[in-house]
């Protein structure tokens, strides 16, 4: 971090800045006139507190504040889920319905996914819906169905948690999803940091890349190294799509962090017609995985039916996505 102090700063004020820094084990080096380089664990410094010190004019970070999430020496975290490696050379596919609606529905979808060799089944049991009048999910009953299908079909499963008190019910879940709306639910993030199941953290629609990485930092800091980031679209001014898929976030995150990055094209555009092209684009941009909503009968889906890819389309989409992956030296 570099701080600039006023040229009229009194010696006593400069001394108190030095004392403040030294109490935090930070060394201050005068690099030019009234500019100082701060050396040490500067991620512990809160800019607001530094700027509040007498006659500090500005402070600029050089090293990112997300110290555990940031990429050092080209490292890449690989997370093992069943026999799938998330963050390795293969682009992994997670697919399933938006919501678990019944055992029959989830089983019918899982059978088809199994045929396509898809190893990770998604399905929401706790559904954070924008309207309280819309389907809220089967909750614990949904988790029981998910667990049954997981065992019968030998699949790994991912589902969303909405409250830390639900955690004991997630014992059979392989990846715990934090939804976009909960990206900054810090008590939930801390609780997920205190356990070791992989966590898929979705980017909030209004969140900057730094806010997403700082949210992941909570889980890492509390002890869980198994964090997967997910781009799922951010808010824009255009009404044609639900959100805007921030494709640029993919190479950017791959550069800034060692954590695997996956893309959810379904919630981003909210329209099944665009899901296919966004899958190809995401793979081309370097995504480590895709999480896509599929349904055996979208018109009867209890949530997000319009964005669900028809199951029978999935095979040909994956074939093309595989070609894109191979073009950039990866595979699906
Ligand atoms: C979901 O994946 O089911 C979901 C609700 O997504 P998001 O949190 O991205 O809206
Ligand atoms: Mn959905």
Structure overview:
This protein is α/β, with parallel strands linked by helices. 33% of the residues lie in helices and 20% in strands. The chain has helices spanning 11-23, 47-51, 103-115, 140-153, 186-193, 209-221, 249-256, 265-269, 272-284, 311-327; strands at residues 2-5, 27-32, 35-39, 56-60, 79-81, 84-86, 92-96, 120-122, 156-161, 175-178, 199-202, 227-231, 261-263, 289-295, 309-310. The strands form three sheets. The protein has an eight-stranded parallel barrel with strand order 7-8-9-10-11-12-13-14, surrounded by five helices. A four-stranded antiparallel sheet has the order 2-3-1-4. A hairpin with a 2-residue loop joins strand 2 and strand 3. Helix 5 (186-193) packs across helix 6. The longest helix has 17 residues, at 311-327. The mean pLDDT is 97. The chain binds phosphoenolpyruvate and manganese (II) ion.
Q: End-to-end span in angstroms?
A: 42 Å
Range of helix content: 25-40%
Order of helices and strands: EHEEHEEEEHEHEEHEHEHEHHEEH
- Describe the oligomeric state of these chains in a short phrase: single chain
Reported for the largest beta sheet, the result is: 8 strands, parallel, barrel
Please identify the structural class as seen in this structure.
alpha/beta
Contiguous uncertain segments of 5+ residues: none
Strand order of the largest sheet: 7-8-9-10-11-12-13-14
Rounded Rg: 23 Å
Shape: elongated
Number of strands: 15
The small-molecule ligands in this entry are: phosphoenolpyruvate, manganese (II) ion
The DSSP helix count reads: 10
| Mean pLDDT score | 97
Portion in strands: 15-25%
């Amino acid at each position: 971090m570099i701080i600039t102090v006023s040229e009229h700063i009194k010696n006593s004020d400069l001394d108190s800045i030095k004392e403040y820094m030294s109490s935090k084990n930070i060394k201050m080096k005068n690099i030019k006139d009234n500019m100082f380089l701060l050396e040490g664990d500067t991620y512990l410094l809160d800019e607001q507190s530094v700027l509040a010190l007498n006659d500090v004019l500005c402070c600029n970070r050089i090293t990112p504040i997300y110290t555990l999430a940031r990429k050092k020496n080209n490292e890449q975290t690989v997370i093992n889920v069943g026999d799938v490696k998330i963050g390795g050379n293969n682009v992994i596919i997670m697919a399933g319905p938006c919501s678990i609606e019944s055992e029959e529905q989830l089983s019918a979808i899982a059978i088809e996914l199994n045929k396509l060799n898809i190893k990770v089944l998604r399905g929401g049991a706790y559904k954070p819906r924008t309207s309280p009048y819309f389907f809220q999910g089967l909750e614990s009953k949904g988790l029981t169905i998910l667990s049954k299908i997981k065992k019968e079909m030998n699949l790994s499963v991912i589902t969303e948690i909405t409250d830390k008190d639900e955690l004991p019910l997630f014992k059979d879940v392989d990846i715990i999803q934090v939804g976009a709306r909960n990206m900054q639910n810090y008590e939930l993030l801390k609780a997920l940091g205190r356990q070791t199941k992989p966590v898929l953290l979705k980017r909030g629609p209004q969140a900057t890349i730094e806010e997403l990485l700082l949210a992941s930092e909570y889980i890492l800091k509390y002890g869980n190294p198994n964090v997967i980031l997910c781009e799922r679209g951010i808010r824009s001014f255009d009404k044609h799509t639900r959100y805007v898929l921030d494709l640029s976030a993919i190479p950017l995150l791959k550069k800034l962090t060692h954590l695997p990055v996956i893309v959810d094209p379904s919630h981003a555009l909210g329209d099944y017609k665009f899901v296919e092209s966004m899958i190809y684009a995401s793979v081309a941009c370097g995504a480590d995985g895709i999480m896509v909503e599929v349904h055996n009968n979208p018109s009867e889906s209890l949530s997000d039916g319009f964005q669900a890819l028809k199951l029978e389309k999935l095979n040909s989409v994956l074939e093309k996505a595989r070609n894109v992956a191979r073009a950039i030296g990866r595979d699906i």
